[in-house]
Amino acid sequence: MNQDGPAELVIRAESLHADVVADPGSVGPAATTLVAEARRHAVAREALVVALRAQAVYERSRMAHDGAKRLLDEAVRLARAAGLPERLHEVLVSRAVVQLERGRFGAAARDLDAAERAGPGGDPELELQRASVLYNVGRLREAARVCRRILADSRTSRETEAKVTNNLALLEAQLARPDTALELLDRAEALAGPALGALVACSRGWVLARAGLLAESLRQFDRAERRYREVGLAPAELYLEQLDTLLDLRLTAEARALAERAGAALREGGVGLMGAEALLRLAQVAARSRDPESALGPAAAAAAEFRAQRRPGWVARAEITRIAVLLESGRAGPAELSAARRAVRELERGSQRSSVVDAHLVAGRVALALGRKRAAVDHLVAARDGARRGAVLVRLQGRVAGAHAAAAVGDDGGVVRHARAGLTDLGRHRDTLGSTELRALATGHGAELGRLGLGALLRSASPADVLAWLERTRAAALLTSAPPSGEAIAPHQAALAAVQAELARLRREGEPEPMALLAEQSELESRVRRAAWRVPGGHPSRSTPVGVPEVRRLLGGRPLVGYGTDGERVFAVVLEARRTRLVHLGDPREIQIETEALGSALRRLCRPARGRTAHVAARAAAQHTLHRLRAVLVTPLGVDPRDPLVVIPDPVTRDVPWSALHPGPTAVAPSMSLWARTARSGPAGGSTVLVVGPGLPGADAEVRALAAEHPAAGVLVPPSATVGAVAEALGGADLVHLACHGLLRTDNPIFSALRLADGDLTLHQLDDRGRTAAGRPRRLPVRGGRPGRG
């Protein structure tokens, strides 16, 4: 049994406190034992105070702030009763930290004042907490000044210096100086112990996101999570900091799950400060979802909590989120404009660039919707100018604001300049991402700029310029090249291939697919996908959209029709041998309704044993909708029905069966650039490959007929038409014909697949094997059905 006296217990408690601060996961549980030992010594009051403080540090590391507060309350009472002013000072500062993180700003300020009276004036640790209060209420420049003063104080300990340097880095990032922030984090990491080093790693992930380096941010958060686990820190704060990166990557579902997970953990532990921030993040995620109205509840709840915490800057952010949702639904009125302008003024006091830009943009849009042009232009110009030195996504917001401001004063040329510059910036940003999925999602950041530029060109430019703009906005994401996925993904891919092979075997043998195996497949898909997100971008894309003159040359007199939608109308640009025409067509909602009706009728026709009456009715319905679509989309174009036609649809017309609307030969491509690639001669030595998949009636006969026309073609049929063999054949082929079933995955599009003899060849695998446009087949027609889940 330990026989230490009071003095020895104090020494042990001080040592334990330092160890718990450095590595709470390993050392923290020992604090409970030392507290119990100190309680048995009636005269060991000082040791008990220090031990209680150490145990509180451990509880705080686990996000158990309510428990930490109770321990520190006892330590404060003991220190006061025993007349221990220095210990009282230390414990009051520790309790102020916990109170601050619980969202009790008034209580934290009272503890700091009491600590200052009990201990030495100007204590760096106490001043650090005062800076934290300023930071969390949004007074960033004042907080930065306090941090710099602490760093200049010779009394500042190594541990406090590391904390202050980390906090100053976060402030510099919010003040749009990410390079300075990263240099400060290098210094903080050199000073930090294991636990604080994990927090610094988390800060680095957040700063990298603010710098626009999103894939690198994800990789850094992975490293931070490993360090969190090593030292036993609760991950809720880490999850919260990752949310901005996920939102910037437009990974909405993942961001929502993380926000809910972080929020639940923070509420359970009584961490009100970050709990309110988690609510706001949840609102921001919901605002970008398919149901933006669901953001209103969390935004209002977050605003209420921020008001209770006396954090006006954060109230302003929550208000901007709420107003943006109301604006989207057409319900923003004069009251919302007044609220947005108040939020702008509050956020400008804090000087956080991205929030100020966002607030000005929302205020400007509300003013535009209300017809308040002068106020709108003032806010939009402020957003445009404020975004100039920000990260790429902040600059994009500035370009959107600039385009709206130009449109408000009738400057169509200015609209196009801002839209073009923003899309150029977005292209560079897309090049930093190694995942095709993330590149496709990033394109969404430019959707509004694309619409604004298109509207301006439709008002003031030639049809050829309109067609070129449509091509620019469509082809950009399709023409980017990405690097190979690398070794990090290979093990997950191999495991996934094994599971898919087993599922294919069960299907061949007519056995049901076990739920456990499907769940394993889903988990492995998630791992592959997440690993791909972290792949760094490769070289900048060398592919550029093809120009209208080159397309006209390749057409050889054939017409090409590019469809687009602007507001309430679908239009078509008809590119012919000697002229380019703009034709205004119908209502996009009508076209979508007719397309869906046609799909329903065709599905009814495919159902066996429905009876003659049902068959006749379905055929009549299909013919009626075809006639309606032809009348709206093709007849007004004035093209000869016998002419070969190239069609470039937009999202509204993407599912239209064009060959059924135009009697002549019809080619459909996602962009002019990709069509032009098929029209040019293929790569030297390119081969032809014909593939038959399992379970598709008529596929063998179809491929035999094609093989007669292409006697040198390589033919792959089951059981030789395996995933590996087909993927290998695609790599060097010029022309490929695939007669197999497809699996359309709306839940996880990158794993949409072609069903082959031994499993599924996914879009992810196709992309990974032929990452550049030049490495893919020039033509790749697919004929087959759509089994499986959607």
Automatic annotation (TrEMBL):
Which positions fall inside the CHAT domain? 625-766
Region Disordered: list its residue ranges.
Answer: 771-790
User: Which InterPro entries does the entry link to?
Assistant: CHAT_dom (IPR024983), TPR-like_helical_dom_sf (IPR011990)
Residue ranges under compositional bias (Basic residues)? 776-790
Pfam families for the chain: CHAT (PF12770)
Q: What is this protein called?
A: CHAT domain-containing protein
Q: Which organism is it from?
A: Pseudonocardia yuanmonensis
